[in-house]
Amino acid sequence: MLRGMPHTDPSRTLLAGQLRQAFDDDRDADTFLLRLDRYGPELTASLQAVYGDAAPALMDRLLELMLHAYHARPADLKRLDEARLLRPDWLQAPGMLGYVAYTDRFAGTLRGVRDRLDYLQDLGVTYLHLMPLLQPRPGENDGGYAVADYRAVRSDLGSMDDLSALAADLRVRGVSLVLDLVLNHVAQEHGWAQKARAGDPTYRAYFHVFPDRAMPDAYERTLPEVFPDFAPGNFTWNEEAGGWVWTTFNTYQWDLNWSNPSVLAEFVDIILHLANRGVEVFRLDAIAFMWKRLGTDCQNQPEVHHITQALRACARIVAPAVAFKAEAIVAPADLIHYLGTGEHHGRVSDMAYHNSLMVQLWSSLASRDTRLFAEALRVFPPKPTNTTWGLYVRCHDDIGWAISDADASRAGLDGAAHRHFLSDFYSGGHPGTFARGLVFQFNPQTGDRRISGTAASLAGLEAALDAGDPRRTDDAVRRLLLLHAVTLGFGGLPLLYMGDELALLNDHSFADIPEHAADNRWVHRPRMDWERAADAQANPGTPHGRVNAGLRHLIGVRRSLPHLHAGIESHPVHSPDPCVLLLRRDHPLGVMLAAYNFSEHTIDFPAWALRDHLGDHALDHVAGSAFNLGGGAVTLEPYRALWLTQA
């Protein structure tokens, strides 16, 4: 048995000798030992912090798993590992562009996706996130997030061999495959849960099962409800298990007990197995909920960050080409910990969603006022320089109005009233709204109303086309391109949700599908319209053609601008006009200043507000036009975006 020792332990030499015997090739042994020397201390420290006296035995187990996975890792993936070690900022490059899609809705099957790779490459995609495709439970499955088998693909999509073949084709084109890894729970049909219900004590310990309501009731006093409409409460009685099972999300999703070291070992094995299949980025789903602590909301607990650091260290030792993305839709003060602070600085996830940016985009679009946007960004904690933000206009999920009362107050707003306004506006209930969205999960106790809808429908294109109004259609197209300009110009990894490049509208037929009817988020998950894709190229003057052409232009400009490397942060600076957001980036090559007009009005913007950052002369890279900032004003057309550098 190999005994895991901390970095300073005198038995490290003995450990190295034991490990070296496991290799036939000295070069492989050197590589593994060098990585273990680099990441082993992070791993052992995290294991000790979470599991205490159980940490050494767990380290033994993890070493065995890592050795096996390293030996099984294909040669081309080992070459990718070395390339990524030489370019650790690969996720931060301005040429990175993400695309997010459901396999079946994009191309039917994994083989169908392979047939559409030319389309993705032509768009500039370098990062392909295929939404949950691992084997879910039959029937209702939370959009695939109720996983029954982490080592199998949905049979209607293909096989694990099809997944590996797709990953290989993507690698040749310089595209990274991204998969969801659900960490908080498994489907009740998962083998672990089946064995737990059958009475196996080993697997019962993988879950939180209580014989009566005493502990569930104690936890419930401080737990929120995620889906109050159709999954109230956080515990479900299971007759076969003879107990109350912790089910944060849905009754059929059993929360895992991460205080059990075996659960961590299982997921290390799963991660390394999928990495060897060619998965390069793992979206760590529901990561905030993993650790349970009585008297708290059981989110964002410190152990989560130790566990993630341990998972990342194992991946770095075996497969350093792999990156982690945290799906933590939490307050900014909590979010930053998923990228690493203090002892975890830059050692947890490599990327996290900037949900606040998405929320503020839609808030400013509705209010035509960017002061709240600037205030929210001004107090946003800076991220570690080796990490990046995942930036998006829309995603597969609903929009929750995550606007803090403190941010709203500094911008002169009442937080509750503003959130109410946004829900009214985007569900079509506010006078003069351009949006067509649906209310998702109304909570009468808090008044919270989340919103479903595609980007195009929320930005006004659906209503404008129905009205046959060219002016309103033009405004909707401009709004969409403005939103994409902000995400592309912010300096992270922009993520396009499938169909946004074609301005796809709400799919109201979702209600005709029984398994989708109760969940109106399917309204913004339409099937890919390949006829529309061809028409967008053939007829660039159509609304979807204009969005497609404008977006492709922005992507090309972004790729050419080193100022947009994600190692640099964007920060708001004073704007004399509340309709205009100014974001500054201080790059070694010089200042970049972005200006965004969030209104349908032409604005004469004071030139001094730009000159103070750029001097007398500037170049707008979006339009390719030069500005003399020595004059009185710069004209900003409705919804115009400027990416300015010193000329």
Oligomer kind = single chain
Classify the secondary structure makeup into a structural class: alpha/beta
State the distance separating the first and last CA atoms: 64 Å
Based on DSSP secondary structure assignment, what is the total number of beta strands? Answer: 25
Radius of gyration (Å): 25 Å
Helix content percent band: 25-40%
Largest beta sheet: what is the strand line-up? 1-2-5-11-12-13-14-17
How large is the count of helical segments?
A: 25
Strand percentage: 15-25%
User: Largest beta sheet, briefly?
Assistant: 8 strands, parallel, barrel
Mean pLDDT: 95
Uncertain runs with pLDDT below 50, 5 residues or more? Answer: 1-8
> What would the principal axes of the Cα set say about the shape?
globular
Highlighted features:
647 residues; 6-stranded antiparallel β-sheet; 25 strands; O16G_dom_2
Would you kindly provide a written description of the structure presented here, covering whatever features stand out?
The chain is globular and about 75 Å long. 40% of the residues lie in helices and 18% in strands. It has 647 residues and is of the alpha/beta class. The relative contact order is 0.09. Residues 1-8 have low confidence and may be disordered. The longest helix is centred in the N-terminal third of the chain and has 26 residues, at 26-51. The protein has 25 helices and 25 strands. InterPro entries: Amylosucrase, Amylosucrase_C, GH, GH13_cat_dom, Glyco_hydro_b, O16G_dom_2. It comes from Deinococcus depolymerans. Pfam families: Alpha-amylase, Amylosucrase_C-like.
